[in-house]
TrEMBL record:
It is found in: Cell membrane. PANTHER family: MANNOSYLTRANSFERASE YKCB-RELATED (PTHR33908), UNDECAPRENYL PHOSPHATE-ALPHA-4-AMINO-4-DEOXY-L-ARABINOSE ARABINOSYL TRANSFERASE (PTHR33908:SF3). This is Dolichyl-phosphate-mannose--protein mannosyltransferase. The keyword Chloroplast does not apply. It comes from Acidithiobacillus marinus. It comes from the Bacteria. Its main location: membrane. Keywords: Cell membrane, Glycosyltransferase, Membrane, Transferase, Transmembrane, Transmembrane helix. GO terms for biological process: lipopolysaccharide biosynthetic process; response to iron(III) ion. InterPro entries: LipidA_mod_glycosyltrf_83, RgtA/B/C-like.
Length: 570
């Protein structure tokens, strides 16, 4: 099938649809089997809960304050899932699973004309089975949506550049995707794609394409029509405070100085990208070497490869220069790298290129050693830091087995079977993480259990929340109700001012319970409801109920119930 054929064969559509459905099933299966992971997931979830409670899906708020971290689009996506499945991990995450499957489908559909059906299908499979896809498309964060929208924006522009007959449609799709990306994460949604496009056209000496054929006069109004209304609405409603905080604190501030301790060396993203794209990233050095051997043709004859390289390099370089570093910041660089990998794999499949045996050996040895390192780290090193984790010796076995089987197959030149072996190993590892390890870690996050305890006691009755010397956003999400805030004590002397007719549920490190009790007025009774180990802070956390006792309640030191006059609890 010619890569330039505009007709889409029924067989190709059936394959694309099957991969889409299987991918959605893979990303969404049992996606609610663990509680929300601190910090990001419960912050966004709690903000949505408070927006719903106040009937305002325009202004992001958190703990009764403006939350300028991200714009509104991902909240609206999570809201759709919540409407369908409820305010729980299932409802909050299902949108990301769907977005992940849509990304795979779009890659397949968009690349068929650019590269042909085999490369398009292979790119979708590589993207779906990468390690980071298992994680990111099962999380309630804005990153999956941005990854999809940036991919649509840049690939649509590339298609418009090469195919004049579909130029108008693809350019408008690109402008719309950049507008939605701006609604999802802010200026990065159009600044970086715009930079990539401009640098590409400059290197091709065709910058005039922007104003001669780029539909700027209609594309920019379309962009503003989609992106601007919400920014104006939130600005008017908050007297432009949200907009100022978002631009200067969350964008310029994050680039200029690290936030929340998210720092890293200059090679941070080289490592995180390699690990996130496993197992396929083990072949990236060979892919880049192969491209380097034909670098003279990049500018003149291979515009597609040049565009993909610029896409990945500019995105990673930009965030390398940023002071704040997180692996999710460079997810948008993954699709062009997967495309380049698929092109290289297809050359081998059709015998247009034969990889050097030592290169194959090095790549597969790297994967085997990484699998071995995972098992060693999880079995002997990690327990020294976190002894409460479940046994994880088998975590590296899928990569080790896949590397060994693929090595044997590649020696016999069974390339397709070798790729299948690696993909199967990746899926097995993902399944092991999702269905075995993560559920076993879930009890080490006590916020959900604490929330259930509070709900069982209080029912529909009013209460308050407070924290001392410990807090995770998941506690507010699971322990709170609607737009209920939590009071963060900076001194135990503030405790008395919070106490009233309603029970107060206070969470603190277990070793601080005696100090909390000593600060509790004698007219109140403190009950330790539960104590559990918490994985993030590596300590035991206690949940206390502080309330005025019933007149019939007496001293019961063994059960932990206070006498109203004693102010003590054993």
């Amino acid at each position: 099938m010619s890569a330039t054929n505009t007709d889409m064969p029924r067989g190709f559509l059936l394959k694309a649809t099957a991969i889409f459905l299987l991918t959605f099933l893979f990303f969404s299966w049992d996606t609610g089997n663990t509680s929300l992971w601190d910090i990001d997931e419960p912050i966004y979830a709690q903000s949505l809960k408070q927006q719903i409670a106040t009937h305002n899906l325009v202004v992001p708020i958190y703990n009764a304050r403006l939350l300028p971290d991200k714009p509104a689009l991902n909240y609206w996506l999570m809201w759709s899932g919540v409407r369908l499945l409820g305010m729980n991990a299932w409802g909050l995450r299902i949108g990301s699973a769907l977005v992940g499957a849509l990304l795979i489908l779009y890659l397949i559909i968009a690349l068929r004309r650019l590269y042909g059906a085999p490369i398009a299908l292979l790119t979708g499979i590589l993207t779906a089975t990468a390690l980071h896809s298992t994680v990111i498309f099962r999380s309630a964060t804005p990153d999956p949506l941005l990854m999809l929208l940036i991919t649509v924006a840049l690939l649509s522009y590339l298609r418009a550049y090469f195919y004049p007959e579909i130029r108008t449609r693809e350019l408008y799709l690109s402008y719309a995707a950049m507008a939605l990306a701006t609604l999802d994460k802010g200026p990065i949604g159009f600044l970086l794609p715009g930079l990539i496009i401009v640098v590409f056209l400059l290197l091709r000496q065709q910058l005039s394409f922007l104003w001669k054929a780029g539909r700027l006069t209609t594309g920019i109004p379309l962009f503003l029509l989609i992106a601007l209304p919400w920014y104006l609405a939130v600005g008017i409603e908050t007297h432009w405070l949200w907009d100022r905080l978002f631009i200067f604190q969350q964008n310029i501030g994050r680039f200029d100085d690290s936030m929340q301790g998210h720092r890293g060396p200059w090679f941070y993203y080289l490592i995180s990208t390699f690990l996130g794209m496993l197992p396929w990233s083990i072949f990236l050095p060979q892919v880049l070497h192969d491209i380097g051997q034909h670098r003279q043709k990049l500018l003149r004859d291979d515009g597609k490869t040049l565009f993909l390289l610029l896409w990945a390099m500019i995105w990673i370089t930009f965030f390398t220069l940023s002071a704040t570093k997180l692996p999710n910041y460079v997810l948008e660089a993954y699709p062009p790298l997967f495309i380049l990998l698929a092109v290289w794999f297809n050359k081998i499949r059709v015998r247009e290129s034969i990889p050097h045996p030592w290169g194959v050996f090095f790549s597969l040895s790297t994967l085997f050693l990484l699998g071995l390192a995972l098992s060693v780290f999880a079995t002997w090193i990690l327990p020294l830091r976190e002894p409460h984790l479940p046994p994880m010796i088998a975590i590296g076995f899928p990569y080790m087995l896949a590397a060994g089987i693929a090595g044997v197959l590649m020696l016999r030149r069974y390339w397709s079977a070798a790729w299948i072996a690696l993909g199967t190993g990746s899926v097995v590892l993902s399944g092991f993480l999702v269905f075995s390890i993560l559920p076993a870690i879930n009890p080490l996050k006590p916020s959900q259990a604490m929330g259930r305890e509070i709900a069982a006691i209080q029912g529909n009755n009013p209460y308050q929340l407070a924290s001392w010397d410990w807090f995770q956003p998941s506690f507010l999400f699971y322990g709170g109700r609607g737009d209920m805030p939590i009071h963060h004590l900076t001194a135990l002397a503030q405790l008395s001012a919070l106490l009233g007719p309603e029970p107060l549920y206070l969470v603190c490190p277990a070793h601080d319970v005696p100090a909390v009790l000593a600060s509790t007025p004698q007219a109140y009774q403190a009950t330790r409801l539960m104590t559990a180990y918490e994985i993030y802070s590596h300590q035991k956390i206690s949940l206390l109920q502080i309330s005025k006792p019933s007149p019939s309640v007496g001293i019961n030191h063994e059960s932990g119930i206070q006498d109203t006059a004693s102010g003590k609890m054993e």
